[in-house]
Amino acid sequence: MIDPQDVRDRIAPRILVAGEPVAGLRHVPTVDPSTGAPLADVPVADAATVDRAVRAAAAAQPAWRDLGVPGRRRLLEALGAAVREHRHELAMLDALDGGNPFPAMLSDVERCLHQFVTWPAVAGMTGGATIPIDPRDLHFTEYEPFGVVARIVAYNHPAYFAIKAMLPPLVMGNSVVLKPAEQTPLSALRLAEIAQEVLPPGVFTVVTGGAEAGAALVGHPLIRRIGFTGSVATGLAIQRAAAASAVKHVSLELGGKNAMIVFPDAPVEAVADAVVAGMNLDSCAGQSCGSTSRVFVHEDVHDAVVAAVEQRIARFVPGVAYVDGTAMGPLVSAAHRDRVAGYVAAGRGEGARIVATGADPGLSGGFFQPPVLFDRVEPHMRIAREEIFGPVVSVLRWSSVDTVLAQANAVDYGLTGAVWTNDLRQAMRVVRGLHTGYVWVNDVSRHYWGQPFGGVKDSGLGREETLDELRTYAEVKAVNMRTRW
Ligand code: NAD
Fold first, then answer.
1. pLDDT tens by residue, 99-114
2. Is the CB of 90 inside a 6 Å radius of any atom of ligand 1?
3. Ligand 1: which residue has its CA nearest to atom 11?
4. What b/e readout covers 180-214, taking b as 16+ CB neighbours within 10 angstroms?
5. Is the pTM here over 0.85, yes or no?
6. Which residues contact 345 (CB under 8 A, 6 or more apart)?
7. For an engineered disulfide with 308, which of 32, 39, 230, 272 has Cβ 3.0 to 4.6 Å away?
8. Does 229 contact ligand 1 (Cβ within 6 A)?
9. 469: left (phi > 0), else alpha (psi -120 to 50), else beta?
10. Which residues constitute the signal peptide according to the record (predicted)?
11. pLDDT tens digits, residue range 302-355?
């Protein structure tokens, strides 16, 4: 493991606009969730800085567009190579700043490295069409970049989200201004420094700050396309603000309250492994949009599944994110830890039974929340309806497929769902019956790049991780050419 102290000593957060550091900004501390201690003072972009960043991006965009796919591909592949060289540093910044264990953050960076190659490789395949209206003329469509695209992302996978967010608009010929979450700004700022060595100035800019900086970006007159990852409340605020400023394209990757439905024929040990894997404890202490948070277990196997999950959860003792062997890290902030603890208290207060908690870590200062397994949860309880975004899972018992589907769908969210059974007929009934954008059969949590990821209902608008995502970062121009007088 790279030495955390070495990485910490080199942290020097700054906003670069067209390669130049912005001076005179207010700074706020970012905190190490493993200790609660301040890590670094981070600049807060005011409206004037956001405006400078967007204008620099707009100035850089035409030349970037005119490089064409081969030119952009060369530079983005070179950026991928530079990111590969810095992957340990980026992962350690995320472990220090966000509290997720270093191995998980390294795996995050490593699993998106291919995107520096594959996105540019498929950008030339986005197409456009020749429309056979009149054989004497020519009717065709072209994809044209928007100009400057704004990307605003959440805190749970900082470097991964920054990389995943910047590439699709960039390969389509847009420049990008990205705002990371205020809790975890360091890896994105470092990424911008690395990018500065490879990409033309202004093509990729990172501005830090919170809601105010995000709102300045959303409302900026030169921004016509916004891609957002975060909570439903912020997604709604962005839709409203975008609509109030101009006609803008907005895509939203929002929260989830994800259900896993277990049939009595599913193997208990595999189900228990999947429940724990679906909680994403080792990668982000459950702070993932796609985490399993409601497990509907058929009454015939209920007791066996609960006992098997209980055994597994007890192994997850939270610890410091950048120490070897840490099973799971802290939550991102004291406020979020208190929020999650509030849900645990609410569940107990409403009559759910706590079956297991991972042991208390006995460390002071950090924002640790051991994992919690709730049994005897009823659909009306808050822990069964609201997104907790932490290491808490609820078990609900079922006996009728119609009823369990109705209960699984009785939330405002619709991101992911899973069904566990060997019975293909039942599996397909649940797949078709679940109101979600992504479904697993005998699987959980995994993303398959090339499969469209996104939510229905309040979980979002639009799909990512597929060729169609690229097309959303361009507008269609229909060209009608008469070839005769
Ligand atoms: P958040 O909505 O609080 O913040 C997300 C980003 O929006 C941050 O960068 C924040 O500074 C910015 N922001 C806040 N107010 C804004 C405003 N008014 N205008 C513009 N930007 C603003 O979310 P969070 O707490 O960072 O992340 C947790 C949420 O994100 C959860 O609900 C989770 O499910 C969701 N999430 C969804 C996905 C997905 O792919 N569907 C992935 C990760 C996280």
1. 999 999 999 999 999 9
2. no
3. 210
4. bbbbbbbbbbbbbbbbbebbbbbbbbbbbbeeebb
5. yes
6. none
7. 272
8. yes
9. alpha
10. none
11. 999 999 999 999 999 999 999 999 999 999 999 999 999 999 999 999 999 999
